[in-house]
Amino acid sequence: MKLLPKSFRSDFERILDPIYGACFAFNPNASRMTYRAGMKSGLRILADVQFETMLGKEYSFFPTTQTVGLRIRISGKNIDPAMESYGIPVATGAQTKIGLKLTEIKRMKRPYGICVEKHSKETFYPNHKYTLDVCMRSCSQRRIVETCGCAHPRYGIPMNARICGTEAQDCLLGLRENRSWNPLAECKCNPSCDEIQYYTTISLGRYHVGFTY
Predict the structure, then answer these.
(1) For residue 52, what are the β-bridge partners?
(2) Among the listed residues 156, 163, 162, the one whose alpha carbon sits nearest the alpha carbon of residue 138
(3) How far, CA to CA in Å, does 115 sit from each of 21, 110, 132?
(4) Would you say residue 172 has pLDDT above 60?
(5) Mean pLDDT across the stretch 176-199?
(6) Mean pLDDT over all residues of the chain?
(7) Checking CA distances to 32, which of 133, 142, 146, 183 falls within 20 to 30 Å?
(8) Are 54 and 33 in contact (CB under 8 A)?
(9) Exposure string for 61-81, b = 16+ CB within 10 A, e = fewer
């Protein structure tokens, strides 16, 4: 972020992810628009992924990190990133091109169908739009809080809830190994009445170190 010109820093918003650490959302306020299709009118990012800091003494990744690379999530405004579920892995030393196809879905309400109105269902993601995934994640968090007495950091945190520590590891593992719990039946989550989905097409190529934009 420090290497970006000041005029571009407002285009990025820093997000802390419990699994991937520091993430950055581009164009969070939807202030930048493109009106043409094609690769030349899209977003280009050149990322320098360094495993160590400039001093070479501290690691820039978690001790549990198994691979080095990037993870990209494409979504609309105020959508929970859910990087572990919808993130696109991008390898180092490669040029990744992602094509997008936007599909807008409008579902029929009762009595013709079952869907959830905007913000009509309470979740643990107050600043994000309602989605089926947000409902399922909130339901899982509610189950963890009721059983273990703490909140898992990978899900939305309820107000005044305590974050689970190492002392809750056995309880969390017990919930994960419980095969009798059926989230589809017990969570009673339904899709949103208005939804936008992005379908992606990915192509990879070897990145040439002498190539410049």
Answers:
(1) 59
(2) 156
(3) 33, 8, 10
(4) yes
(5) 89
(6) 83
(7) 133
(8) no
(9) eeeeeeeeebbbbbbeeebbb
Task: Give the rounded percent of residues in the chain with a pLDDT score beyond 70.
Answer: 85
Return the percentage of the chain with pLDDT > 90, whole number: 24
Q: How far apart are CA 139 and CA 144, in angstroms?
A: 9
Q: In the chain, where are the structural domains located? A: 8-99, 108-192
- Closest C-alpha among 211, 200, 147 to residue 174: 147
Give phi and psi for 12, each to the nearest 5.
Answer: -120, 140
Q: How confident is the model at residue 213 (pLDDT cuts 50, 70, 90)?
A: very low
Question: What pLDDT sits at residue 210?
Answer: 58
> Which class would CATH give 108-192?
mainly alpha
What are the two backbone dihedrals, phi and then psi, of residue 25, each rounded to the nearest 5 degrees? -100, 125
Q: Give the closest residue to 201 by CA, choosing from 88, 100, 84.
A: 100
Q: Would you say residue 2 has pLDDT above 60?
A: no
Q: Could you write out the three-class secondary structure of 3-34?
A: CCCHHHHCCEEEEEECCCEEEEEECCCCCCCC
